[in-house]
Amino acid sequence: MIPCTDGNTCGASYRCNTASATADQQGCEPIPCDEGNPCAADRRCKPGAPAADAFGCEPTPCDAGYACPADNRCNVGSSRADSHGCEYVPCGDGYACPENTRCTIAAPASRDHGCTTLPCKSDGDCDCGYCVNGVCSADPGTCQFPPV
User: Fold this and answer.
1) CA 89, 83, 53 angle in degrees (round to 5)?
2) Measured between alpha carbons, how far is 137 from 119 in angstroms, rounded to an integer?
3) Which of 11, 56, 98, 122 fits 47 for a cystine, CB–CB 3.0-4.6 Å?
4) Domain assignments of the chain as residue spans, ordered by start
């Protein structure tokens, strides 16, 4: 690699600083967000934060403006939450499990709604669909020859 000689050889969001500990092999270092480099739409500028990236950006928490997906709720600090503080709404707390599943309430650290696919022995054991390999499915299984 040829060392950088000015900011133009480093590209957008980087500057040439061959003496920097955060520089890459070419000598380019990230320009921090607190120096005018914008963070991605779902991140905020928080230099020095433990979750901050090389630019000083961290995920924007849902209680500070990030919108959680429709089947999630904002619960910053929960062991079930993602980096924005969003967690799946558990089936025992308002989420309706889809057909062929039942609410079994996931473990506290689980990152799903807590719905488990119904076990079955025949198609009649399922809400609708088919019994495939002992569990209910909306789609029929496929027959295949066993591996040789």
Assistant:
1) 170
2) 10
3) 56
4) 67-117, 118-148
Q: DSSP letter at 97?
A: P
Distance, C-alpha 148 to centroid of its chain: 39
DSSP symbols for 102-135: EE----TT--S--EEEPB-SSGGGSSSSEEETTE
Q: Determine the 3-state secondary structure of 16 from DSSP.
A: strand
Q: How far apart are CA 15 and CA 30, in angstroms?
A: 6
* Among candidate residues 21, 18, 20, the one with its CA nearest the CA of residue 4: 18
Residue 122 pLDDT: 93
Distance between CA atoms of residues 92 and 88, nearest Å? 11
pLDDT in tens, 83-104: 999 999 988 888 899 999 999 8
Counting Cβ atoms within 10 Å, is residue 25 exposed (0-12), middle (13-18) or buried (19+)?
exposed
Judged by phi (left if over 0) then psi (alpha if -120 to 50, else beta), residue 82 lies in beta
The answer to whether 95 and 78 have CB atoms below 8 angstroms apart is no
* Integer Rg of the chain from CA: 24
Q: 130 forms bridges with which residues in the sheet?
A: 137
